[in-house]
Specification:
Elements: E1 3-11, H1 15-26, E2 31-35, E3 52-53, H2 64-74, H3 81-100, E4 115-116, E5 126-127, H4 134-147, E6 152-156, E7 158-166, E8 169-177, E9 183-193, H5 214-221, E10 226-227, E11 232-241, H6 252-259, E12 262-264, H7 287-299, E13 309-312, H8 318-325, H9 328-334, E14 344-353, E15 356-357, E16 370-372, H10 390-409, H11 418-437, H12 446-460, E17 464-465, H13 467-483, H14 497-521, E18 530-531, E19 544-550, E20 553-559
Parallel strand pairs: 1-2, 1-9, 2-6, 9-16, 17-18
Antiparallel strand pairs: 3-5, 4-5, 7-8, 8-9, 10-15, 10-19, 11-14, 12-13, 13-14, 19-20
Helix pairs in contact: 1-4, 1-10, 2-3, 3-10, 5-14, 12-13, 12-14, 13-14
Length: 574
């Protein structure tokens, strides 16, 4: 069995993981960067499209404090203000660093990094590479930077099954090579979880294939706490109809606020102002309110034919459309869409997760030796993420987690324990034996479980919630968790994807239970969490919900949101 020793282990290799690996290596640590997909090519970063929020101040009078105030306002009273301040204060330095590395931020004729005013922002501070390619450009730039950073070893296709603890400390992990099923043990002085979010759990989502909540499940089973798991974010205008092939379903947002795309109900009427927000003419309504309004219009019988709303650019001159969309116009034409002559239909789609691993302002979890970064972290965005904050969160939290983990690893010993790893190794071996013994032609049960889970989460734990559907979902998810050991896998030990599916389901069912339990406990409506049976926002619930594993059961407690320190200097997060 291969055994690898490193100072810092980084699990997940999107923007957060790559930045963490580089920061740890530059701080003197030997780093192992692993991903179940390809390093730098999986996760959410490479799928991101346009904007990255950072108060560069090149266009409007702006500041990190002003960015922070917008973030806190969007978060509906639940932001961990210390984390939000780290995010907003650290964003400009990361954007300028990427600029030095040649990411190619769009610039105006004066040479300034071009910025737009995205929904929820009070200034033009959202920068981009181009309208559909910001995430891929960032991922490519970071892949190049990682390859040039001494001290970072990269391994793709390595799926981490369990974090290993010894004497109360995380000491590494047990992983499996997805190509051949070989088990690998990883000893580390410090471990960073940067494996992204959980939106794959919902039937309608914008997630990559590996966004099943791995980081949250690994953290829970290692003894860490999660915070605010009831707050998945639903992107309001995900593409719905007509059929769109080879294009991202969340492509419409930047075009809406850049070109003034009008959001209309089935009667071709603008409707957002009926829900207490001013949007007509500026098109910058927050995502949670917009999603809620679209669903309510459909409930009232005023939805579009496919069950969403119309997004119309028919009032925009065709030359202006082509100037803004460029070759995208031709791709849309291949899908039978002419924006100058017809609207498209859009509807909410699961897109991001505000909750996650509970950490302090150094990205340390409550378990010694365990850190988190990027979307794996909970708290900074409260009940609703401000548009454009996801990518700077990955960059800033990744860099800080890397430095913090390297500092902790500096004088720490390697504490690997075969005895501590034995239960995880036994579970992996047992499932491998079951797969080897499965008769030829055995039909895997994992696909059926996945399909049921996604439908259940979308219908019962989606945008609009109430007690009876949530209770039914919680009961069924717990039944599915208990039945998972008996779920069939297909035969074979080499490149058996149903074995990977089984282990992913083990974590995803736990995370689905965490979301559902948290949603059931929060008896109010706030941000991305909307209860039909508790429609008001209650002051009594202006607090964070904390989850931990108590044996095999999830336990919930409440805590007051973290407030900012009275004084915070830029050099603390530079």
């Amino acid at each position: 069995m291969p055994h690898i020793e490193t100072d810092v282990l980084v699990i997940g290799a999107g923007a957060a993981g790559m930045y963490a690996a580089m920061a740890a290596a530059k701080s003197g640590s030997k780093v192992l960067l692993v991903d179940k997909s390809l390093v730098g090519r999986g996760g959410a970063t490479i799928m991101a499209q346009m904007t990255v929020a950072a108060a560069l101040g090149d266009y409007d009078e702006d500041s990190c404090e002003r960015h922070l105030q917008d973030t806190l306002k969007a978060g509906r009273g639940l932001c961990n203000e210390a984390l939000a301040a780290v995010l907003c204060n650290g964003a400009p330095a990361r954007i300028r660093e990427l600029d030095e590395w040649g990411v190619g931020w769009a610039r105006d004729d004066a040479g300034r990094v071009r910025a737009v005013k995205a929904p929820g922002h009070s200034a033009r501070r959202c920068v981009y590479v181009d309208v559909l390619n910001t995430g891929p450009a960032m991922a490519q730039t970071l892949r190049t930077a990682v390859s040039r950073t001494r001290g970072v070893n990269r391994v793709s296709g390595l799926s981490v099954r369990e974090l290993i603890k010894h004497e109360g400390r995380v000491i590494g992990a047990v992983a499996v090579n997805q190509d051949d099923g070989a088990v690998v043990t990883l000893s580390a002085k410090a471990t960073i979880l940067a494996a992204g979010g959980l939106t794959k759990l919902f039937q309608r989502n914008s997630a990559s294939a590996n966004m099943g909540g791995d980081a949250y499940a690994l953290a829970l089973r290692a003894g860490a706490e999660l915070v605010d798991m009831e707050f998945p974010q639903f992107f309001p205008i995900g593409h719905l109809a007509p059929r769109l092939v080879g294009m991202d379903p969340i492509m419409w947002d930047p075009f809406r606020y850049k070109l003034g795309g009008r959001l209309l109900n089935g009667n071709m009427e603008e409707f957002l102002e009926n829900y207490g927000i001013v949007d007509r003419g500026n098109y910058t309504a927050p995502r949670d309110v917009t999603s809620y309004a679209i669903v309510k219009e459909n409930e009232a019988g005023r939805g579009s034919p496919a069950g969403g709303a119309y997004l119309s650019f028919m009032h925009v001159p065709e030359a202006e459309l082509r100037a803004a969309f460029g070759p995208v116009i031709d791709l849309l034409a291949e899908n039978g869409i002419d924006l100058s002559k017809r609207p498209v239909e859009v509807a909410p789609i699961a897109h991001y997760h505000m909750g996650g691993i509970r950490v302090n302002a150094s990205m340390e979890s409550g378990v010694p030796g365990l850190y988190a970064a990027g979307e794996a972290v909970g708290g900074a965005n409260g009940a609703n993420r401000l548009s454009g904050n996801a990518l700077p969160e990955a960059l800033v939290f990744g860099e800080l987690a890397g430095r913090s983990a390297a500092r902790a690893a500096q004088d720490a010993p390697q504490l690997w324990s075969d005895e501590a790893a034995a239960p995880a190794l036994a579970m992996i071996a047992q499932l491998a034996e079951r797969a080897q013994a499965a008769p030829h032609g055995t039909v895997a049960g994992t696909s059926a479980v996945w399909n049921e889970l996604k439908a259940l989460m979308w219908l019962n734990v989606g945008l609009l919630r109430s007690e009876e559907p949530l209770t039914a979902a919680l009961t069924r998810i717990r039944e599915m968790r208990r039945a998972l050991p008996q779920v069939a896998v297909t035969g074979g030990g080499v490149w058996n994807p149903t074995v990977e599916d089984w282990f992913e389901l083990r974590g995803s069912l736990l995370v689905a239970e965490a979301i559902t339990l948290s949603a059931l406990n929060r008896r109010e409506s706030r941000g991305a969490h909307q209860r039909l049976d508790y429609e008001d926002t209650e002051t009594a619930f202006e607090k964070n919900q904390i989850l931990r594993l108590d044996g095999a059961e999830l336990a919930s407690t409440w805590a007051q949101p973290v407030k900012r320190p009275a004084v915070q200097h830029m050099d603390e997060v530079a």
